[in-house]
Design brief:
457 residues; alpha/beta; Rossmann fold; 2 domains
Length: 457
């Protein structure tokens, strides 16, 4: 089997750092897995990891040989080492995310300089909110090497191929920043190597408190109907996985109906603001790596979140954790309408809001938003689907500040703010005049409730 002395020397120092940085459970994509020694070692040393190795087509067979020979036994509790997949960062395609982390060791200096931006861009595209990009290897600083050995190594690489060479950490950091990745750490490791750590943005992290305060809850009639269809084992309390739970609005609705809930979200900030209840257990986890046992839940509920992670990976995880006959529901709400005043007063307000939603925020909405506007139509549903209850709505009586607080939690508003533009003040000024009592009065805000539900195959 292919063997690397360097991997054998550095695998334990790297494992110690990964243990410090990686959340658990975590789905990790390794780019350029080489001999597979890292993949095997980390899967044996670190618990609750779903490790996905990858390599270029010409190196895939050697990598898979080690995984087949050593990667099926002595794994850490809850960890899984997947078969290697083909990935050339220069040509793609990248595997479906999201991943809690993308790790690569000793690749940036071997690949062509032109491929490094593609490595960073591809990693950013498949990371979960708050996910980590970890790059191990030798790096220079503003063209200066940290040791004579690194300078000699750089000269050797460039003599072999001018496109290779030790990369500058400042350049890597700038590339990462261009894709919204924030530099978190630069860790010194043995033999003049380093671990550069970057984190993906969390679209709701900065507004977690506002999200918990302003996001609406869901119709009582639907929650009653959902709980009524759960089929727990005799003598057992139903258990539901609330995936992408945010600050726990749906979790709390289930718990107050006597249902046990395991509520997961990729955002630690959201979980910190979540409503507490004795029947709710909160965990930080992605939709595709829940950490739940196989066939362990009686239902899966996704509230105003499935558009962020819909796809084969989530569907497979939902099917894995569900008991036979478990109830799966994706619920949400369509753009709101105002009510509670004369039509002549409501019309200009609604016109301004609709224009703001469809036109002003258009450049800032993520592409996944279309699934919400379509009522999740077009997404693959992994089960026997039922007719969704019609004509349900969510209603609140809000002043203008209440409404603006809710609008400030939208992902498009957060994206605009991160780009240096806050679209809310201008909207507030436009709405204040026609709003009752210059914004202090209350209007009815009404969301059409929508979704899809059924039994998991």
């Amino acid at each position: 089997m292919l063997f690397s002395e360097a991997c054998e020397r550095n695998k334990q120092p790297i494992a110690q750092e990964l243990a410090r940085w990686l959340p658990r459970p975590a789905r990790v994509l390794e780019v350029g897995s080489g001999s597979g020694q890292h993949a095997v070692h980390f899967s044996r040393q670190l618990s609750q990891l779903d490790w996905q190795p990858s390599e270029r087509p010409e190196a895939l067979a050697a990598l898979q040989q080690r995984i087949a020979h050593e990667g099926r036994n002595q794994l850490a509790p809850g960890s899984h080492l997947a078969d290697a997949l083909t990935l050339d960062v220069s040509t793609g395609p990248w595997p479906s995310g999201p991943f809690e982390a993308v790790f690569t060791a000793n690749t940036a200096h071997i690949m062509a300089a032109s491929a490094v931006p593609q490595l960073v861009a591809g990693a950013a595209a498949v990371l979960a909110p708050g996910g980590l990009l970890l790059l191990y290897g030798p790096f220079s600083d503003s063209g200066r090497h940290s040791a004579p050995s690194n300078a000699a190594f750089d000269a050797h690489l460039r003599s072999l191929d001018p496109a290779m060479g030790v990369r500058d950490a400042d350049w890597i950091t700038a590339l990462a920043a261009g894709h919204g990745l924030r530099a978190r750490a630069d860790v010194a490791l043995p033999a003049n190597n380093r671990l550069l750590v970057f984190s993906a943005p969390d679209p709701f992290g900065s507004v977690a408190e506002a999200y918990a305060r302003h996001r609406p809850t869901y119709p009582e009639a639907f929650m009653d109907a959902y709980v009524g269809r759960l089929q727990a084992a005799p003598g057992q309390t139903p258990l539901v996985w609330d995936c992408g739970c945010g600050s726990g609005q749906a979790s709390l609705a289930l718990a107050t109906r006597g249902v046990r809930v395991i509520a997961t979200d990729a955002s630690a900030a959201q979980l910190a603001e979540a409503s507490r209840h004795p029947l709710i257990t909160y965990r930080q986890a992605s939709a595709s790596t829940s950490g739940l046992d196989r066939a362990s839940v009686d239902g899966v509920l996704v509230a105003q979140a499935v558009h962020w992670f819909a796809g084969e990976a989530f569907n497979a995880e939902a099917c894995r954790v569900c008991r036979p006959g478990a109830v799966l529901a994706w619920i949400g709400y369509l753009p709101f309408q105002l009510a509670g005043a004369e039509p002549s007063q409501l019309a200009p307000l609604q016109q301004h809001l609709d224009h703001w939603y469809r036109e002003v925020l258009a450049p800032w909405w993520p592409p996944q938003r279309r699934w919400v506007d379509q009522g999740y139509a077009g997404l693959s549903f992994p089960g026997e689907e039922w007719s969704f209850p019609p004509d349900l709505t969510i209603e609140r009586r809000w002043s203008l500040p209440d409404l603006l607080g809710y609008l400030g939690t939208w992902s498009a508003v957060q994206a605009a703010r991160q780009a240096g533009h806050d679209p809310l003040p201008e909207l507030s000024a436009v709405l204040a005049a026609p709003w009752p009592r210059a914004g202090a009065g209350a209007l009815t805000v009404r969301w059409p409730f929508m979704g899809r539900w059924g039994r998991v195959d």
